[in-house]
Design a protein that fits this description.
Elements (H helix, E strand, L loop, with lengths): L12 H12 L12 E6 L4 E5 L3 E4 L2 E3 L4 H7 L4 E13 L10 E4 L8 E10 L2 E10 L5 H16 L4 E14 L11 E3 L15 H16 L10 H16 L4 H10 L3 H8 L5 H10 L3 H9 L7
Parallel strand pairs: 4-10
Antiparallel strand pairs: 1-2, 2-3, 5-8, 5-9, 6-7, 7-8
Helix pairs in contact: 5-9
């Protein structure tokens, strides 16, 4: 992939959170309240937020909660999980090229699933090594760690390292239309608002763009609901459908997509800035029987 016109950036979620809180605390019109939210009621003229300590009233509420009822509904749509374990390691020798990163390495993995290793170097002797699955069920933590150890031993020839940090996560990948849970007075945001890209699990850029759009709509007194364009939803539905039905084919799917399309076109798709022509080209570049089958099934079925 040609990344000459792009920069890959990584952010510490803890540092980012501290930075945001520090900025917010400078404004006297913003107040932090710690409470457990039991329910949110839209009464048309006002919204009632039912808390464990007390009730709160507002004209508009932004809600990032994923409720139990929501997970029951998601089951009727195509649904996978992106689940991973990552280690930030420091090696006793300079093993990493800090000017390049490994995006999706399928050489060591569970052959029955879409799974890959990701390497993001920070220094020549320090990097994040992460093993990721796109599948329906999570694994025991030891499974991810086994593949990370194998990967380091085989491709870096060094088992002498210190684990500085660890991370574990699960990201929902689903075609469920989250935006339908928003109302005129309640805007679902983040994962609960469908801001995670279904076919990749990417979300940060979407959160940034959608937040700016909401701020702009507040100023213009427009509707604050965020609805994805149908063309991105449809392509995500196909990709996720293929990964759901033929989970061991993930390597082939992503290889063909990257091999047969320019980096710029792929990144535009990931950022949901593609033209219709780009999306059609990506779709037909796959030239896969599985892809074609899912393409036609996508018109008639919610869950694939």
């Amino acid at each position: 992939m040609d990344f000459s016109n792009y920069q890959y950036k990584t952010l510490s979620s803890l540092k980012f959170k501290k930075h945001v809180h520090k900025s917010i605390k400078k404004h006297r019109n913003i107040k932090f309240i710690k409470d457990t939210i039991l329910n949110i009621r839209d009464e048309k003229k006002r919204v009632v937020v039912v808390g464990n300590k007390k009730n709160y009233f507002a004209k508009h509420v932004f809600d990032s909660r994923l409720t139990k009822n929501l997970f029951n509904e998601i089951r009727y749509h195509t649904f996978l999980k992106q689940h991973f374990v990552g280690w930030v390691i420091k090696t006793n020798k300079k093993k990493f090229d800090k000017n390049s990163f490994v995006f999706m390495d399928y050489r060591i993995r569970d052959e029955k699933s879409t799974a890959f290793t990701y390497v993001l170097p920070f220094k020549k002797d320090e990097a994040l090594i992460e093993h990721t699955y796109f599948s329906k069920n999570e694994c025991d933590k030891k499974v991810y760690e086994k593949y990370i150890k194998e990967y380091l031993k085989k491709y870096y020839g060094d088992t002498n390292y210190i684990i500085k940090k660890t991370e574990y996560g699960t990201i929902p990948m689903t075609t469920y239309p989250f935006y339908k849970n928003s109302t005129k007075n309640i805007t679902k945001i983040g994962t609960a608002g469908g801001w995670v890209k279904a076919s990749t699990g990417y979300s940060f850029k979407n959160c940034e763009k959608n937040s700016l759009k909401i701020v702009d709509n507040i100023k213009k007194q427009k509707d604050l609901r965020i609805v994805r364009k149908k063309r991105y939803y449809f392509l995500d539905k196909i990709l996720l459908g293929v990964l759901s039905k033929y989970n061991n084919r993930g390597e082939t799917i992503f290889y063909r997509m990257i091999k047969r399309n320019s980096t710029k076109k792929i990144l535009r798709f990931l950022d949901e800035e593609s033209t219709i022509f780009d999306i059609l080209k990506i779709t037909f570049s796959m030239r896969s029987v599985h892809f074609i089958l899912i393409f036609f099934k996508s018109f008639f079925k919610k869950a694939l």
